[in-house]
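Hi all, long-time lurker, first post. I run a small reading group and we've been trying to get comfortable going from sequence to structure in the token notation. Rather than ask abstract questions, I figured I'd post a concrete chain and ask someone more experienced to write out its structure so we can walk through it together at our next meeting. Sequence below, copied exactly:
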Amino acid sequence: MEQNKSRNNQGKKAGLIGIIANLLLASGKLVAGILAGATSIIADALNNFSDGLSAVVTTVGFKLAQKPADSDHPYGHARFEYVASLIVAIMVLFVGFELIKSSIEKIIAPQAIEFSYLAVAILGASIIAKFLLFLYNGRAAKKINSETLKATSIDCRNDVIVTTSVLIAVLIERFTGWKIDGFMGLAVALFIIFSGIKLTLETVSPILGKKNNESLKAEILEKIKEYPIVIGYHDLMIHDYGPGISFCSIHFEIDKNHDPLYVHELIDKFEREFLAKGTNLTVHYDPVVTDSPKLNRLKELVLSVLTSNDPRLSLHDFRSIPCDGFTKVFFDVPLPEDMAGRESGIKEAIDSALNALGEEKYSAEITFDSVAFN
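-- Answer (accepted) --
Happy to help. Here is the structure in token form:
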């Protein structure tokens, strides 16, 4: 909890710095753009105003994300950070479309830019300031693992590119007379829209529920190695409720001959170790038979049929139940997405291989899982 509080405080600090810096830059560029009559400079100023508003949203997002869990939101409010990022993305897109309109008007009816050393100085200072913000936000994002600050850092880098382009347009018109201000403004607008679309996609992904956190997944799997009684795992699901807030579940396959009380204590220990790090982890215990030669032989046969169909296929939770006149063999198969539709063919191949043994009649009961969790 203390770690999340420190993380949010660092995020709010970065947001406040962004607010002040962007408002100062936007004001200076707006004055310079109006004096020079340069649409591209005014467009860049509006982009900075948008960045300032984005920083406000980011700061508020980190503030709201600090709210503790309550009866209506038992998993906390950390996802406010994702909501803040989505609002920022929408604002960026709005500014970009407005700039397209004004830039096209300038292309249709071009006007000369009044060259000003003040404008050049402001643009130069802006490039330096944005580059420093790019470095600051990038380091802060890495330090607290924040997608919001990472997006802010990338946006600052983009601003360096955009403002450099605007400065080039001003200098080209000064020394060549070519009126490319409207075209440069259009390029700036398209660049802003592209950044907005990219940011929207990155923000929507965790809200919709993106795939497992790979670093946390690797940490869990590495910890399993310290528990030799675990002979297999499956159905590892990681639910993201905001940066640093994860709820996970996993199934452990353990020899049924182990004392259940001993197994229960080890599973509790495993869960407590992750809870101490802020991850709520629930382990489901699957007892499996390991000392039946017949069952092991059937398992090896089924596995060979699966891998002959596709080397990526595997199985878990293998067990059998005798029925009236035949034996049911139960197991789960993680199925890659590109193999969807081949389930019936896989079952037929396994049934055929089992019954070819000539020992008794078999029927495979297969549950096809998502490979993403296995």
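A couple of things your group might point at:
The chain has a mean pLDDT of 83.
The beta strands are 230-240, 246-255, 279-288, 316-322, 327-335, 362-370.
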